[in-house]
C-alpha cells in the first residue's frame, strides 16, 4: 500500500479504498450507527495501514468484527496481530465518555505497556454529512495522532519482544518504507529488491512504479496498465532520443 492509499489522503469527493470498504461494511450493519462507531471504523483502517490485522477466522484482513461493541456499556474491544509477528496479540479498548473516546492499545504480553489517546469525536466526524466521502474531517491530523500515540509505539514494543528491531529498514512501518523507496533512483530500487523477499514485493508494487514514472517522466503518457513496463518504455524512448540528439518533449 502506498501513501496515496492511506486514509489521510481521502478528499471530500473520494475516500481511499480501505476507508470506503470499511464504511460500506459499517453502514451495512443492521444497527443504529453512532459517531463513535465511525471513529472506531477509522481506527481499524489506521491499524491496518500499520500492518495490524484483526484476529479472526475470516479471510478478509479488513472488516468490523462480530461483537466489537458491548451492548451494555458501549465499550469497544478488539484484538489485532502484527503481520510480521502473528503470535503476539494486541488489544484495542475504546471507552466512550459522552462526546469523547478514550482509545487504549496494548500488546497482550508480560510487562505490557498501555498507550492511550483521547479523541474528541465531533472534531473528526461530520454529523451533518449525507454522503460517505464527507463523513470525516481533519483526517490527516487524527491519522498522525493515532499512529504517533498508538500504532507506532505498540508496533515497536512487539518487534522488540520478537527481537526484530534495530537499525534496519525492516523495523520501520510499511508506509515509511514506501516513502523511502519512492525517493530512490531505479538502479538503487532494483538493488533493494534483491535484499529480501519483503522488499522484492514492495519494490514491485505497481503504484510505486506509477509514482516513479510520474516523477521521472512527467511528459510520458502511460498507455498500459503495467506501470513498470511503461517506465521501461519511457527509458528506451529517452535513450533513443539522446542517441539521435533530440529532446524528450513528447515522451
UniProtKB/TrEMBL annotation:
Sequence ranges assigned to domain F-box in this UniProt record: 166-212
Organism whose genome encodes this protein: Habropoda laboriosa
A GO molecular-function descriptor: protein kinase binding
PROSITE patterns for the chain: FBOX
GO terms of biological process kind: positive regulation of autophagy of mitochondrion
Database matches in Gene3D superfamilies: 1.20.1280.50, 3.40.1000.30
Protein name: F-box only protein 7
